[in-house]
C-alpha cells in the first residue's frame, strides 16, 4: 500500500496496473490549536483509506510543502510557492508514466492554482492526473469546525482548550483582502471558522464522506 515501504523488484510486475495516489499537503499555521502538519495528515489519511478500499492503489510518500504564502507571518509556516509547486507536480507525474494513472489528493486549498496549471500541461502531454480535494462550508475553510473535528479523530493529543473562533464570513467575501494581505488581515488568530464545538465523532463522519467521494472519483476515472 505504501510505495516508500516497497522494494523496486517486488513492485516491477504490477506497476502497470497500479494507480499512484499522492497525498499533497502543506506546512502552515492552523490557528492556536492544530498542528502545522494538519493538511498533510488529512491528505495522507484519505489516501490510506482509498488504498484500503480500492485494489491496485499504492500511496506515495506525502508532499508536506505547498503554496502557503497567504499564511506568512504566522510562526512555522513554510511555503514553496505556486511556480515551484507546479514544477514539482509536473515532474513527479511525468516520472510516474509506468503507473496506470496518478491521483493527486490535495489537503490545502492554496495549492489549487498550481494543481490546475500542472493538470493543464500534463493533459496536453497525454498524462492527465486526477485531482481531488475535500469540500466544506464556505464559512469554515481553515482550522474551523470541519478540520478540527477531523484532526480530533486522527490525533487524540489535540487540545481544544486552546481553540478560539476566527473569521466565520464566507470565503468569497474575505478572499480579496486575504489575497492582498494574507490570512492575518482577516483573522488575527489564523482561523477561518469556529473550532470550539468540534467533535471527533463528527470528524469520522466527515472523513467517511470524503473517502466515499474520493473512491467514487477514482473508480469513475480508472
Describe what this molecule looks like in 3D:
- The protein is α/β, with parallel strands linked by helices and 222 residues long.
- It has a single domain (3-221), classed as Creatininase (Rossmann fold, 3-Layer(aba) Sandwich).
- The protein has seven helices and four strands; from the N terminus they run αβαβαβαβααα.
- The protein has helices spanning 8-11, 38-53, 81-95, 112-124, 145-154, 171-181, 200-221, and strands at 19-24, 57-59, 101-106, 130-132.
- It has a four-stranded parallel beta sheet, with helices on both faces.
- Helix 4 (112-124) links the parallel strand 3 and strand 4 (130-132).
- Helix 2 crosses helix 5 (145-154), helix 2 packs across helix 7 and helix 3 crosses helix 4.
- It starts with 7 loop residues before the first helix and ends with a helix.
- The mean pLDDT is 96.
Which features would summarize this protein structure in a list?
222 residues; alpha/beta; Rossmann fold; 4-stranded parallel sheet; 8% strand
Amino acid at each position: 500500500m505504501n510505495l516508500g515501504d516497497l522494494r523496486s523488484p517486488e513492485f516491477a510486475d504490477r506497476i502497470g496496473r497500479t494507480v499512484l495516489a499522492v497525498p499533497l499537503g502543506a506546512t502552515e499555521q492552523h490557528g492556536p490549536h492544530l498542528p502545522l502538519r494538519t493538511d498533510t495528515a488529512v491528505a495522507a489519511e484519505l489516501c490510506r483509506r482509498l488504498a484500503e478500499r480500492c485494489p491496485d492503489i499504492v500511496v506515495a510518500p506525502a508532499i508536506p510543502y505547498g503554496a502557503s504564502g497567504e499564511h506568512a507571518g504566522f510562526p512555522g509556516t513554510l511555503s514553496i510557492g505556486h511556480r515551484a509547486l507546479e514544477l514539482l507536480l509536473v515532474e513527479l507525474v511525468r516520472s510516474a508514466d509506468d503507473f496506470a494513472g496518478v491521483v493527486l489528493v490535495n489537503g490545502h486549498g492554496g495549492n489549487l492554482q498550481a494543481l490546475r496549471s500542472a493538470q493543464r500541461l500534463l493533459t496536453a502531454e497525454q498524462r492527465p492526473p486526477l485531482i481531488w480535494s475535500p469540500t466544506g462550508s464556505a464559512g469554515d475553510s481553515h482550522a474551523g469546525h470541519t478540520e478540527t473535528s477531523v484532526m480530533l479523530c486522527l490525533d487524540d493529543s489535540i487540545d481544544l482548550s486552546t481553540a478560539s473562533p476566527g473569521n466565520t464570513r464566507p470565503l468569497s467575501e474575505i478572499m480579496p483582502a486575504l489575497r492582498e494581505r494574507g490570512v492575518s488581515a482577516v483573522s488575527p488568530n489564523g482561523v477561518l471558522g469556529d473550532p470550539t464545538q468540534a467533535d471527533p465523532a463528527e470528524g469520522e463522519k466527515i472523513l467517511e464522506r470524503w473517502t466515499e467521494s474520493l473512491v467514487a472519483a477514482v473508480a469513475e476515472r480508472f
